[in-house]
Amino acid sequence: MFWKILGAIVLVWLAVVILGAVLKALFPLLALAVIGAGLYFLYRSMTGEKDRTDKTVDSLF
């Protein structure tokens, strides 16, 4: 019984370590994506594209 509990603790610890490493590696990409999207929407709001029609799924077919 002791080895099952110890094995479960080790597996949970490894999962947390791996998840932390993945999130730490992807955080800069997420930050760049948020900044890029913000700049894109800021550019779109500042340009005068008021006569543009929205592209919807219905208009594609």
How does this structure look, described?
It is built from two helices and no strands. The termini are far apart. The protein has 61 residues and is mostly helical.
Q: Radius of gyration, rounded?
A: 23 Å
Shape: elongated
What series of H and E elements makes up the topology? HH
Helix content: over 70%
What structural class do the secondary elements suggest?
Answer: mainly alpha
Give the biggest sheet.
Answer: none
Question: How are the secondary structure elements laid out?
Answer:
Elements: H1 2-46, H2 57-60
Short account of what is shown:
With 61 residues, the chain is an all-alpha fold.
Summary keywords:
mainly alpha; 61 residues; 2 helices; elongated
